[in-house]
Amino acid sequence: MDTNQLLAFDHVVRHGSFSKAARMMDISQPTISIRVKNLEEEVGGELFKRGGSKLELSELGRTFLPFAQQVLETIDKGIEQAKLAKEGKGGKIAIGTLPTLAAHYFSSTLATLHKTHPHIGIAVHTGHNQELLEMLYEGYVKLCIMTYPFFNSELRSLLHIREPLRLVTHPEHLLVHKGEIELSDLIKTADPFLLVDWSVETKRVQRDMIGSDSDFEVPPQTAYDLLKSGMGVALLTETMVSHDIKQGTLVSLSVKGFPKLYRESALVQLKKEKEISPSLNTFIKVFSDEIEKEKFCELKSFAF
User: Fold this and answer.
1) DSSP letter, residue 271
2) Helices H, strands E: what count in the chain?
3) Could you list the residue range(s) of the whole structural domain that residue 60 is in?
4) Which of helix, strand or coil describes residue 40?
5) Which of 86, 105, 122 is the last residue of a domain?
6) If DSSP codes are grouped into helix, strand and coil, which group holds residue 97?
7) What string of H, E and C letters represents the secondary structure of 137-154?
8) Is 232 in contact with 190 (CB distance < 8 Å)?
9) Which positions fall inside the HTH lysR-type domain (predicted)?
10) Whole-prediction pTM value?
């Protein structure tokens, strides 16, 4: 059984005769008759009642017709999606990301991608660096956004993102009204200092600055929620808090002696991957554009 046989059967049904169907398909009537005959041998019986003045489907033909049309429709959709995928306008992409990177410019990337390329299917999976690596190795995802540096020689960086971290707190916190803030003031008055693990380096610096006596380590979103409730001081990304700072619901603190820190991440793929699909290239382009809209972020692209 092949698509030519199914097409012949479908055209005969639609046009009500073998001769009209042959003209529409631009083939001879004997050819279309042979295709239908071969199809009947496959399904085990006649698809049309023969001998009458009007061509009619047999019981077998009526039963088989919706399945034949479904197959043809599926093939048409498959061809359309394949063409769109080749042009970077369709297909399906699977992206892995850290949970803390699944918001802001990543979310706006997905929104823009859906609006401009609605035929591209998207699957987003989250995990920590090691889990993301496993997803890459297993072929579960093709690209990952993970903490940089990643110390793995089997990975290739496609994009490097660098965004500043800011010390922030609630507007009613005691430190807001202190004026010039010393590091000792931060240690004594943070109540508490909410340590966020953005990377090995930033975590080490926070511990060195604050000390281990006030050890209160939480995920970024938890730190954000605690700050909004009026509790503590934390180091959060500019993209995470810029809107709140503008609205006055959070306040940025300047502490003497506290170094400027950054959250660094990278969009990576396995080096063994010899190419990037058009749909993934479309994602990378939209992702880059969305990052560049964030005036706080620094973006570096690497040639494939």
Assistant:
1) T
2) 11, 11
3) 3-86
4) helix
5) 86
6) strand
7) HCCCCCEEEEECCCCCCC
8) yes
9) 1-58
10) 0.69
